[in-house]
Amino acid sequence: MVQPAWDTHPEPLTVDSAPRPEYGSGSLADLLPTLAAGMDVPGMTATIPELTAADRNCVFLIDGLGWEQLKAHPQEAPFLTSLISSSRGGTGRPITAGYPATTATSLASVGTGLPPSAHGLPGYTVRNPATGELMNQLRWHPWTAPRPWQPYPTVFQLAQDAGVHAAQVSSPAFQNTPLTKVALSGGTFHGRLTGEDRMDLAAEQLAAGDRALVYTYYAELDGAGHRFGVDSDTWRGQLMYVDRLVQRLAEQLPPRTALYVTADHGMIDVPFDEQHRIDFDEDWELRAGVALLGGEGRARHVYAVPGAENDVLTCWREVLGEQFWVASRDEAIAAGWFGQPGECDERVYDRIGDVVAAARDDVLIIASEREPKESAMVGNHGSMTPAEQLVPLLEVRS
User: Fold this and answer.
1) Less Cβ crowding at N or C end of the chain, within 10 Å?
2) d(CA 249, CA 260)
3) How many Å apart are CA 384 and CA 348, to the nearest integer?
4) Half-sphere exposure (CA, 13 Å, Cβ side) for 396?
């Protein structure tokens, strides 16, 4: 991840000064292909060089557990903290989520082993080119046929086809969602309500095959961050609970297993004032020439009225350029925000905004009328700052 000088403020911020995710060597999209390659799954390549092969692999994804937030709370997470020095094969380094650092995008990157420019879920809400409507890719609304939207097989499916025992252990509510189908399907889904039951069943599923690939998930830390903030007692209490869950699973691992604890994004708290929360619905300059506002507060896709693309780009740079990286669609793709520089599937291209705005400072572009619930959140994420982009890759081996 290329780190710019965080204490400087070019005016406006240049597109290339944004820290690009480590696609191809250390991003969420590289994790499952690396593990599957170690289990001899055809077509998979090990692209995170620090990881060594294991017969059984488990990925425990904790929604919202950013690397920087974890490091800031060693007392609440003693077990997780004890694993930091051995993370990423003993280098002590995190990996990157990918852009935008948001749940739907990251889960698709994990499950397919592809960056957003290929799997095609490049944001919280994006324009469906076939209908012209905004589509919420987390809630899958309005409904869109899943397979045409994301046609690639998941790593779990490829592993199952190669004779690996593949399984997902998560909340029963996620079993039949379109996001699960396009991002995490393959093998068997096992729904369990409590975190403890998920840990116990994940361990059982790992032992169910000589080669096994198991995924499990916990969402409530993220929910606490959104509602109360990552500086809240509620969030810290959730982190303490997550720490116990990881230790519970680690103590039950069958032989020849590698457990990897990671996350889909980090999070920052944004103050509730006009300086930090810029309201699109009340800002005539930002609205001018805009047909649709997509994405989320720290990672916006802006869709212009036909013919107004350059004017919208110029305006957004003038208004926001000291606080946001503001790029045209082609500039963002060329800079490698959504995948390898310059690469983007044709079906994905028009889902990306005509203008893409990624927050550098602790600010949001809210939409108080269009997005009242999202605009009221304390904790937020989506952009390419270390607090949002860096996620752990903690390892336990048996």
Assistant:
1) C
2) 11
3) 20
4) 22
